[in-house]
Amino acid sequence: MTRTPTEPAAGRAELWKLLSESLRSSPEHPLPRRVVDAALAWSGAREAVLYLRERDAWLPAIATAESAGLVLPEPPPQRPLPSGTALWIPLEAEGEVHGHLGLDGVGSEEQEELASVMATILGSLLGAHRLSRLVKEAEFEVKTRLLELESLYDLGLSLGGQLDIAALGDEVLFRSISLTDAGKGTLVLFDEGGKILFERSLGGELLAADRVASWSLPEGESVINNAAAAVPTAGMRLSACQKCLAVAISVGGRRLGALAVADKESRDGGVLDFTAADARLLSLFANQAAAAIETARLHRAAIEKERIERELELAAAIQREILPRALPEVTGVELAAGNLPTRQVGGDYYDLFPLSRGRLGFLVADVSGKGVPAALLVSTVHAAVHLQIDEARTVVELVARIDRHLRRYAATRKFLTLFFGLLEPETGTLRYVSAGHNPALLLRASGRLERLDSTGVPVGILPNPTWREEIRTMEPGDLLAVYTDGLTEAVDESDREFGLGRLERAVEERRNLPAARLCDEVLGQVADFARGMPQYDDQTLLLVRRT
Amino acid sequence: VSEACKITVERRDDIAILFTDGYINNQGGEEIARQAYTQLDAGARALILDLEKTRIVNSIGISILIEVLERVMDRKGVLAFCRLTPTIDKTFRIMGLAQYAAIYPSLDEALKAVAAAPRGEAARNP
Fold it and tell me: What's the N-to-C CA distance of chain A in angstroms?
């Protein structure tokens, strides 16, 4: 602004208007310089100097080119004003001093009076300017708080549906850094087993991820360390920051990670202390993160559960396809069979084979393991038996062939117990091999009960197995019950097993019933015993009665 | 996200496009302001800030952007933003930046709107 001739006649209102326009805020022309220019222009002084107070601190003096003599080592309130040719006027409004203006070369009374009027107006304008700045700052502060609230709300919404840990982690870390005005930050998240799920830093690594799990940070509380360099916080990288704020991320006492931010920025490039409000905000972010991680974990668990259920359905379907849909009609023999698969799908398998010369082959097998692997092994056994039954000359040879087939083709290293019987209904000759299977029960028509114990090791368990063939003669009315351990090991609510003794009595008591009904009732008795308790193994019962 | 914000500038006639890459904090904001003022002094009528590679802005960065906006308006120029993340978009709207500077989803849209905006008028917020 060029100096214009003073016009003492100018009224106060006009001077106010002109000065107001001169002081209109512009980022390109800072206010102190404008005040000096305006004072010089309107007072008629030769030189001017201005001391302004901003936020309780004095700004460096702003002076016109030749006013070096007016610049004081300290602002006016700190030392007595110099006397001499300079005129020193406080710039104040409503009792508050906003600055001091020094004018040199103001000689006449008229000029002094004008300068005084001008100073009054400048004081008011500075007061108004300060007020306007305070309002702007307050508005900015309110908007910042609103932004914090909106961020928490948005984060809650996005994290609720966020199952990608990396995206979730970024969201939490970035918002934490930006809303605390931090210069750097680190977020470490791990699962319940301690495996690191997410580790990311911005501006520098603050946390030693491998130490976070054992970090002695109070749960649910944040730690403010505004003297980080002097007093390192446990778990933080040394010399990584000047001031830091950290919080543990936990759910129900389980540590799931930690969040740390550091070096809160100020507009002048300095580092500010973190406040209790910052700590509160970071704790809220940590809580959101914890909730989201828990959601993601539960989701993963639900997916796993769904996968298992699909697998079980598949296994059950395989098993359903393999078990005979109907029992064969064989002269001289009455047959019945029942199979109750458990929810977890075990590996029970039974089958019957009408053979040449009226003979009947029958098999009950129990494969180790559960689910799809067990179902696939049952499928392999089923294929092996159907392929080999016409080739084998003896029951031992048949079992040996099944064993070889399994070793060659089974995808998994599993084993099975089985009972294979070959009955000639005409003579009643029963040849059998029990490969590690539960004792079959031969209930004589006379009422005597025989246990047909194992005659060799389970199939697929030893490299060079041998089995022994046993022979019995079934008289008319004799009943053979072959079953799997799902029956004898069925448990009640006290975890007591049904047991072999109960099974024997159950069969004996009903030995005169038709086989189908006998089978249903025995299975029913086992179910009554279990009283709805979940069972862990399939239950299979095959009854063969010579008529 | 790199720790220090890098700014690259592209000039198209009287429109200067500032591409930011990194955290718009005190340092990033100052760098944007420096480049923006250089462009204004070199005759740029409009500034477009393309924030495609920025994922974080803090309150100090925002206050510097407000200062840049004030200076642009003081010079009767135009300021626009484009390619903001949803989080930054919302931040600018809450903090009042979107009141005087339009926000566009793409650089092309920003260029078209800014080229059509008369001097001294903020490009219309889409």
Answer: 127
